[in-house]
Structures
1.
Amino acid sequence: MMKPILLPILAATAAATDLLLPLYQYPANNGGAWSPIEQAMTANPSLTFKVIINPNNGPGGPGQGIDDPQYAAGTKALASHPNAQLIGYVHTSTDWGATRCNVPWPSITADIKRWATWPARGVAIKGIFIDEAPVNTANDCVAYMRNLTTFLRTDPDVVRAFGTNKPIIVFNPGGVGALQPYYDLQPDLIVALETCFVVPARAGGGGTYDDQCSPAGGYERYDHDGVGSSLDNVVFPSVGRANAARTAVLVHGFHDFNGPAANMSATVGVLGQLIRGVVQRKIGATFFNTAGYHTFTDGPASIGAAASALRAANGA
Ligand SMILES: *[C@@H]1O[C@H](CO)[C@@H](O)[C@H](O)[C@H]1NC(C)=O
Ligand SMILES: *[C@@H]1O[C@H](CO)[C@@H](O)[C@H](O)[C@H]1NC(C)=O
C-alpha cells in the first residue's frame, strides 16, 4: 500500500484533464452573470479552468472588452481564482471558417497585441485561443500557424505582458483532419472534436439550434456507440493516442438523448460516465455544456455539474 505522504506528490505530477471553458456569455451585472463559474472554481480547487475570454470575436474594439467596466470587473474576478487561467480569443478566418488562415497578419497580430494590453490593466491573460484553426494544410496554413506560435513565443510585448515565452496556446480546428503538422508546433491543446448529442432544438429554442449542431449538419453524435466511442472511433484514428494530452474535446449540446435509437439520455449520471471516459483516455482538456456556451446554469450539464464530475474523474 502506498504511503499517504506520497499522495500529494503524485497528485501534483499526474496529468489531469483540465476544464476548457469557452465563455461566450456577457458578464452582465459587473460580472455577476459569471458567479456560477466562480462558484465552480471555488468548489473544485484542484481543477484547472482554462477560460476563453471573447468580447467580440476577439478582444473587442474601443469601448469593448477591457474598456467595458463590466468586462473588466468580470474578468478580474475570474482571474483572481488561483485555479483560473484566462485565454484570449482570436480567429483565423474572414468567412466563418470556410477559408482558414486568411485573416491578414497585421490584423490577427493586432488582436494579440490588444490582448497583451490586458495584464497592465489588471487582468492576467495567460495565452491565446486561436479559433477557426486549420484542419488541413491548404492555404499555406502550416506556415501561418507556425508564424503565429512563433509570434506568441517571441514578440517582446506579448512575452512581457503574459510574463512568459511559453504562453498557453490552443488551436480550435473544431474537428479531426490532417492535424499532425499542427501538433508538431506543440500548442498546449488542439480541439479535435467539438460537437453535441445532435438532437432537435430544445423546447423554446424558437426553431433555432441553440447548441449549434443541427441534425442535418453531419456532426458526430457524441458517444452514440458507447462511452468513449467518439474518441476511440473518430478522434484517435485520426490524431493518434500519442497526442491525447494535447487534445481537447468539447460537447456543447448535452441534452435529450444522443440519437433516434440511443439508450443514453443526457442526465447528470451519464455526464459523469462520459467525462470519466474522456479522463481515462488521458485527454488534455474537456468541457460539457447543456446548450451552447452562452448559459452555464442549465442542467444537466451546468458548470457546477460538469466541473465536479471532471474533478471527481481526475481524482478517480
Ligand atoms: C511566415 O513568416 C515568414 C517569415 O516572416 C514569411 O515569409 C511568410 O510569408 C509567413 N507566412 C505566412 C503564411 O504567414
Ligand atoms: C446501447 O446498447 C447497445 C446494445 O446493448 C450497446 O452496444 C451500446 O453501446 C449502447 N449505447 C450506448 C450509448 O451506451
Note: Strands lie at 18-23, 49-53, 84-91, 125-131, 168-172, 189-195, 247-251, 285-288.
2.
Amino acid sequence: MTRPIRLEIDLSAIRHNFLFTRQRAQAKRLFAVVKANAYGHGILDTAKALADLADGFALLNIEDAVALREAGIDRPIALLEGPFDAAEAAAMGEYRLCGAVHSLEQMAWLAKGSAARPAEVWLKINSGMNRLGFRPEQAGDALARLRAEPAIRPAAIMTHFATADEAYGVDEQWRDFATLARDSALPVSAANSAALLRHPHTHGDIGRPGIVLYGASPFEDSTGAALGLRPAMTLSADIIAVQQLRNGDAVGYGRRFVADRDMRIGIVACGYADGYPRIAANGTPVAVDGAASGTVGRVSMDMLAVDLSHLPQAGVGSRVELWGPQAPIERVAAAAGTISYELMCAVAARVPRSLRA
Ligand SMILES: *Cc1c(COP(=O)(O)O)cnc(C)c1O
C-alpha cells in the first residue's frame, strides 16, 4: 500500500488538445512547447504522444533535447532561449537542434561551430517583453552579422507576447515586429497559446502552443473545458479521516477557518509538499466522489481539509479531485492567486504518477 495520492496524465487529452489547436491555428507549423517537463506532464511521454502530430518541439534545456533525440524523437527541436554557453552552441549541431539567438554572446559561441553543419537559429526580437532579444532597431545589424557567419543559418525570426491573454492585446508588440519580419523574409514565429486562440494575424509560420496542449485556458476568465480543451492532468487523493465540528471549532494551523455551524469535514492526503498551494483560500474548489465542495482551513504540508457537510455519503476512502476534469485547475489557481501553469509545474516528485493512453 502507499499513501493515497496520485497524479494521472491523460495522453489522449494531450493529443486531442493538439488537434484542437491545429484546427484553429493559421500557423503553417506548430512546435509543441514541452519545457519544464512538459508543464509537469512528463516530457518523454508527452513528446511520444505528439511525435506523429507536432511539427517540432520547443523547450529550454539541452539535456531534455538530447533525451528526446535518444528516445527516437526525430522532429525538429527548438531551444527557446538558445544555448547557455559555448559547449551548448556546439552541441546544437551534433543533435540537430535549432534555437533562439538573443545576444551577441550567443552569436559568438555559434560562430565557432562548423560551417559544414551550420546551426539553425531563430533571431529573437525583444518587441516589448524586455526579457530576451534584440531591440527592433538592433535587428537589422544582428541579422546581417548572422548572415555573414558561415557556421550560422538564420532559419526564423521570433518574438514573444507579454499580453496575448489580456485585454491589452498584442498590437503594440506586433506592429514593430511585423515590419522587421517582413523585411527579413524569414519564417515568423510569434504566437503562444493565447495568440493562437485570439490573434490569428500573428500566427505566421511556426506557432508555439504550450498551456493549451495540457488542457488549460491561457485566459483568466475561462477554463480549458469551456474552450473545448480536455484537462490532461488530474491530481487526486483520498479522505483518510473525518471530523465532526461544532459551531465555533477551528481547523488547522493558525485557526484560519472557524465553523459557523455544526459541520462534517474530511482530511485529505494532499498538502503543500505535494505541490498543492499552501496559500489556497478557504473554499478552493475540489470534487469529492464527483460532487463539488471546497477546502477549509490552511493547507498543511501533508494534509488539507474539505467540507463534507452536504455530502453524508462521503467518508474515509472517498476520492477527492484536487484538480482535473471535475475541479478546473484554473479555478484552483485563481483561489491561490496564481495561474494553472504554476500548479502544473509544481507537483512534487513524491506524488506517484500514472499514464492513461
Ligand atoms: C512558454 C513559451 C511558450 C508557450 O506559452 P503558452 O502560454 O504556454 O502557450 C511560447 N513561446 C515561448 C518563447 C515560451 O517561453
Note: The longest helix spans residues 11-24.
